[in-house]
Amino acid sequence: MATARKRIVFVDDEPAILSALRTLLYKERQRWDMVFVGGGAEALAVLRAAPADVIVSDMRMPGMDGATLLGHVRTEFPTIARIVLTGHAEPESVERVLPTLHEFLAKPCGGTALRDAIERALAAAGYPPAPGL
After folding, report:
1. What are the pLDDT digits (tens) for 46-86?
2. Residue 77 is part of a domain; what is its CATH number?
3. DSSP assignments along the chain, one per residue
4. 104-133 pLDDT, tens digit each
5. How many domains does one find in the chain?
6. Do 118 and 56 form a contact (C-beta atoms < 8 A)?
7. Does 131 map to a domain?
């Protein structure tokens, strides 16, 4: 019996970062339905259309920053695991985002570390680990 693919939403305002994430996680496409969006408002629209299992967001983005986005996600979609992946984090931003997330990762982040964080988030939500992990 096949299990449903888990849906992961990645949010970053830099197209090059989204492209790098897409490349880094290419082999996971058989296990995960991955969506890549360029900002907070777009991420919320995507989640309202079809909720996800995990969201991975940058912190510093124009319009809606990662802390604000993840606060909305926590309120509207409390079952979605929330991960920050950022290269820029001022102490006050970190303080704002900590209550809203499950894990904090710093850029640059290797594929193994990112995969492991997503797997931990899925496990914490009650999903079984992927075969071979």
Report:
1. 999 998 999 999 998 999 999 899 999 999 999 999 999 88
2. 3.40.50.2300
3. -PPPPEEEEEE-S-HHHHHHHHHHTGGGGGTEEEEEESSHHHHHHHHHHS--SEEEE-S--SSS-HHHHHHHHHHH-TTSEEEEEES---HHHHHHHGGG-SEEEESS--HHHHHHHHHHHHHHTTPPPPTT-
4. 888 888 889 999 999 998 887 666 555 544
5. 1
6. yes
7. no
